[in-house]
Structure formats: structure tokens, C-alpha cells
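The instructor's notes for this session suggest beginning with a concrete chain rather than abstract definitions. Hand out the sequence below and ask the class to guess, before any prediction is shown, which regions might be ordered.
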Amino acid sequence: QVQLVESGGGLVQAGGSLRLSCAASGRTFSNYAMGWFRQAPGKEREFVATISGSGGFTSYTDSVKGRFTISRDNAKNTLYLQMNSLKPEDTAVYYCAANRVRPASTGRTYDYWGQGTQVTVSS
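After discussion, reveal the predicted structure:
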């Protein structure tokens, strides 16, 4: 079992920045590929970014490329999402997820999910 707890969400103006954190416990963190997903009201959950267990591979959805950065600190068992130049359309609940297979953009690849943290970007 892996437990994931997100933090760092909040209300920010358009153009601002936030850093989300996801604290992991229960298993060797570096064995897991990690991902960030988000879900806006009335919309399907969508992929945001993913990172390999070592941190050497990352991938992003097109809408956040150049603005968001996914990273991890395996010594601290923590995943991060640095979000810059935020836009109102980034408003959503953000979830972190873990899987032992590979970095992936599909939610069904992931075995463990956090409870989510709300990000609201005002215009």
C-alpha cells in the first residue's frame, strides 16, 4: 500500500504561481512512477504530468508545457508540481497518483491516488 497526501493548493490570481506537494508513505518511493492529474467541475479527469521513479523522465500535457514542472525528492518521499503563469482554466482539483509500472498519461495505469487539493485561479 502507498498513501499519498497532497497539499499546497489555494486561490491565486491569473499569472501567479503555486507549488503542489504530494507526500508518500508506505513503500519505497523511488520504485514508483508518479503522476499529476486534475479534474475541473463538470469535466473528466485529465492528465497533467508524469515522472519516472528516478526523476530522469518527465512528460506533460500540451496545455501546461513551459508553465508547469514536475519533480520529485526521493530522499523526502515527496512529489512536486511547480505551476507558473497560472490561468483560470487551470482551476481544478489536483490529484497525485503512483504506479510501479511506468510513467503514464492514462489514469487506469495508476494504483494509488491521493485525496486531491483544490487550485482556484481567478481572472
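Then share the key points. The radius of gyration is 13 Å. The longest strand covers residues 18-25.
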